[in-house]
Every structure is written in structure tokens, then in C-alpha cells.
Specification:
Layout: H1 12-24, H2 29-35, E1 41-47, E2 50-57, E3 60-68, H3 71-83, H4 86-89, E4 91-96, E5 102-109, H5 116-122, H6 124-127, E6 135-141, E7 150-159, H7 160-172, E8 177-182, H8 209-280, H9 285-295, E9 301-308, E10 311-318, H10 322-329, E11 334-339, E12 344-345, E13 352-360, E14 384-386
Parallel strand pairs: 1-4, 4-8
Antiparallel strand pairs: 1-2, 2-3, 5-7, 6-7, 9-10, 9-14, 10-13, 11-13, 12-13
Length: 390
């Protein structure tokens, strides 16, 4: 059962190297051929005083020659390169045998993972019979299960005198090794970025910058294209949303103005309705006077008329004051006619003096006319008091 409490070890460099190898499949073959000036590998393997050369390409190995480590071998190699164009484009690897190198598996604390080479160099005399200044060594982390708190690594080393002599011989033959490894633990040629190299930094050839720059440019172009694919739709959507928002803001501004005008119109309509309702609450005074003039006979005269709060009060003299109550009640304009004081008789004229109060019936409100014109002004007299004598 897997340990869920174990720490996830994420090697960022290893991930990006794998990712770059996967991207390599996207590059057209012609462009890849232009970038990869060298094709295949020449594996140089020491065999005593001789060097065995093998050409390897796409997991296929082809023995080339066995060269002496002297002037004859130099001439033989030059002739071989002249007759075989593949050798000029191939990477050269020096692969040591058990006669030149040894390996040993070590278990180290996980805390030293970031400084493996320094820690192994400091403790090399404990793990091997050599001191750090006597050998060239490399440390390669191993895959698989580890003990808790520890890591397994492979230590590969070779005496300096041995590797220096081999390096001088192959340099004399105009060979420049890409790296040096051990045949018992060979590097994966397809994933050599994860491999180790026994060749010291001072003896390594400088890598050509042109392929690296081209690959970097291609990767940068891919990133730019991916960024454009992801960003452009978002940018277009953002611009569209902004354009729509501007239109919405303009429409909202117009809508607010229309709403303000509608509120003003509603307020004017409400005021007009109030005025109409107040006007229709009672008939006009002229109408009341005309009605009184039509109802009261010529033998009756009025000395005082007052209208207030829907009540009309009249005073005057009449031969039969009690008959006025029925006359006023029969009118559609008046109701609830009554005497507010006793009827008396004027001795000089023989007429009956009266004081009558009558309720004025509210007028029926007519529906307002639908018109765009402003409402006309209403004339209204809240209180009226007059006196006349016939």
C-alpha cells in the first residue's frame, strides 16, 4: 500500500527536459535536421592499447573499426572519417570498461540530495580506497524504492591518470568526447540530459550556441502562440463587454432622464386630479345663485347669503317661510334644508323673517379629458356673503 504521508519529490529540471523532448516531436523533420548538425553516436571503448569504435543510431549499433593508440591508429581514423560522412556529424562518447572504472551503490541521508557531489567528495575515502584528488567521479541518483529518510545513489569513478591518458590519445586522433560514462552503468543516449559525465568540466568541449538558440527561439515562439491563443479570445471578449457596457450606460442615462420626466408628469397629473377633485367637491357659486334665483319667488327676498364647507346659509323675508324648505329640498343641488333659528314676523311688512341652512350636494366628477395641453386654471370662491333687497 502506498505511503500517503510521503513527500512528493518534484524535479523541475527533469520535468522541463522531458517536456522539451516531447515538444521536439512537434518540430518538422527538416527543421530538426537543420538544428541537429550531428546525427548518431560514435562509442569509443578502450580495449588495452586499442580503441574499439561503434556507430550507433536509433538503437542500432554498427562496429566501425579497432584503432591502435598510436600514429597508425590516427591515420586509420582520419581515413575512416574521410570515407564515412556519418562520422563527421556524430557525437563521440568515451565509454570506460571495468579495467578503467568502478561503480558502487550508496545509501545517503535525504538531506544531502541537493549537494551530492560535495558530500561524496568529502567522504570519498570512506566509500572507496581513493581520495577525491586521485579520481574523477560522478554521482547518479537511482530510481525506485528508498528507505525512509534515505536515497540510493550510484557512485562511478575512474583514476585520473587513466582517464587523462585516454583523453590525450583520443584528442590526438582529433576526437572530442561529448561525455564519458561506464559500460556497466551506461547513459541513456536518448535522454542524456539525465545522465552523468566522468569528464571533468575543464576537459569538456563548449556546446555550440546556435542549436540552443534556435531551440530557445522555437520554444519561445510556441509559448507566444499558446499565450496568444489563450489571451486573444479573452481580450476580444473584454473589448466586447466594454463596448456593450458603454451602450448600457448611455441607455441607462436616457432611461433615468425619461424616468425623471415620467415622475414630473405623474406629479402634474396628481396635482391636476387634486384640483379637479377639489373643484368638483362643490358646484360653482354662480350655479348656486342661479338655482336660488330660479327657486325663490318674487315675493321673497334675501338679505344675506353665505357658503362655507358645503353648507349654504340664507336669511331674508317671505310670506310663507316654511314653504321654502320644501322648495329647496326638491332641488337636486340642495338637501337637508332646515331652520337654524325661529321664524319671526316683521310687524312693519307683515313678512316672516327666516334663517335657513341647506347642504349643497357635491357635483359628480367628470372624467378628465385626454389631452396633451396643460390643465386650465380653475376659479373657485371658498366663502361668499352678499346682501340684497328687491
Amino acid at each position: 500500500m502506498p505511503n500517503l504521508n510521503s513527500t512528493i519529490d518534484l524535479d523541475v529540471k527533469k520535468f522541463f527536459r522531458w517536456w522539451l523532448r516531447e515538444l521536439d516531436f512537434l518540430v518538422p523533420e527538416k527543421i530538426r535536421q537543420l538544428v541537429n548538425e550531428k546525427r548518431g553516436f560514435i562509442i569509443v571503448r578502450p580495449e588495452g592499447n586499442q580503441l574499439a569504435l561503434t556507430y550507433r543510431l536509433n538503437e542500432q549499433a554498427e562496429p566501425l573499426a579497432i584503432l591502435e593508440r598510436n600514429a597508425a591508429g590516427i591515420a586509420q581514423y582520419k581515413a575512416l572519417r574521410a570515407n564515412d560522412e556519418r562520422l563527421a556529424k556524430a557525437n563521440l562518447i568515451l565509454r570506460l570498461t571495468a579495467q578503467e572504472a568502478i561503480q558502487k551503490e550508496l545509501a545517503l541521508p535525504v538531506a544531502v540530495k541537493e549537494n551530492l557531489s560535495q558530500v561524496v567528495a568529502y567522504e570519498l575515502d570512506r566509500y572507496t580506497p581513493f581520495k577525491a584528488e586521485q579520481v574523477y567521479f560522478a554521482v547518479k541518483p537511482l530510481e525506485g524504492e528508498h528507505e525512509p529518510g534515505q536515497i540510493r545513489v550510484m557512485l562511478v569513478l575512474t583514476p585520473r591518470e587513466t582517464l587523462d591518458a585516454l583523453y590525450e590519445d583520443i584528442k590526438t586522433m582529433d576526437m572530442s568526447p561529448l561525455f564519458v560514462d561506464y559500460e556497466a552503468t551506461p547513459n541513456d543516449l536518448e535522454q542524456r540530459y539525465d545522465g552523468y559525465n566522468l569528464l571533468p568540466e575543464s576537459l569538456r568541449d563548449k556546446t555550440a550556441n546556435t542549436p540552443r538558440l534556435i531551440y530557445t527561439a522555437l520554444i519561445a515562439a510556441i509559448f507566444l502562440l499558446l499565450g496568444a491563443v489563450l489571451a486573444l479570445p479573452v481580450l476580444f471578449e473584454y473589448q466586447t463587454v466594454n463596448a456593450l457596457q458603454e451602450k448600457i450606460d448611455a441607455i441607462e442615462k436616457d432611461a433615468k432622464e425619461v424616468k425623471a420626466l415620467q415622475l414630473e408628469i405623474d406629479a402634474m397629473i396628481d396635482e391636476t386630479r387634486l384640483l379637479i377633485a377639489e373643484k368638483n367637491a362643490a358646484p360653482p357659486v354662480i350655479e348656486m345663485l342661479n338655482t336660488l334665483s330660479a327657486l325663490i319667488k318674487d315675493n321673497t327676498w334675501l338679505s344675506y347669503i353665505q357658503y362655507s364647507d358645503g353648507h349654504l346659509q340664507i336669511q331674508g323675508e317671505s310670506p310663507a317661510a316654511s314653504a321654502l324648505i320644501g322648495v329647496l329640498e326638491d332641488s337636486e343641488l340642495f338637501a337637508n334644508a332646515r331652520f337654524v333659528s325661529p321664524v319671526t314676523q316683521d310687524k312693519a311688512s307683515g313678512q316672516e323673517r327666516f334663517q335657513i341652512t341647506v347642504d349643497v350636494t357635491p357635483a359628480v366628477a367628470a372624467p378628465p379629458a385626454q389631452s396633451n395641453a396643460a390643465p386650465a386654471a380653475l376659479a373657485y370662491t371658498p366663502s361668499l356673503a352678499i346682501g340684497r333687497r328687491k
